Amino acid sequence: MRDMAWTESGQHTGRTDLSLTPGGERNAKQLEERLKGTMFTVHSFSLAKLPPPTGWLS
After folding, report:
1. Which of 1, 42, 46, 50 lies closest to 21, judged by CA?
2. Which of the chain's ends, N or C, has fewer CB atoms near its CB within 10 Å?
3. Which domain holds residue 12?
4. What are the pLDDT digits (tens) for 3-20?
5. Are the C-beta atoms of 6 and 12 separated by less than 8 Å?
6. 47 is a domain residue
7. Run of H or E including 49
8. Number of domains in the chain
9. Cβ neighbours of residue 20 closer than 8 Å, sequence gap 6 or more
10. Is 42 within the bounds of a domain?
11. Integer Rg of the chain from CA
12. What pLDDT shows up at residue 33?
């Protein structure tokens, strides 16, 4: 699924905000219809409270 122009050209977006391609717009609309009425639960926590990964300690 290649829904942004940079994905089609093999580039990576990082933090750049890019528009969807026409195909991406269609996919988003289809997903909106499928998810309508679905309830989601959001869980959040502070990453600062997590211990560092083991590899960082060496």
Report:
1. 1
2. C
3. 1-37
4. 666 666 666 656 677 778
5. yes
6. no
7. none
8. 1
9. 3, 4, 27, 28
10. no
11. 18
12. 94
Tokens of 35: 């998810």
Alpha-carbon distances of 51 from 3, 33, 43, 56, rounded to whole Å: 36, 40, 19, 10
Are 30 and 10 in contact, with CB atoms under 8 Å apart? Answer: no
Q: pLDDT by residue (tens digit) across 17-58?
A: 777 888 889 999 999 999 999 999 988 888 788 777 776 555
Residue type, 33: E
Q: What's the CA gap between 51 and 2, in Å, rounded? A: 36
Answer whether residue 49 is part of any domain: no
CA angle 41, 39, 26 (to 5 degrees): 110
Q: 25 in a domain, yes or no? A: yes
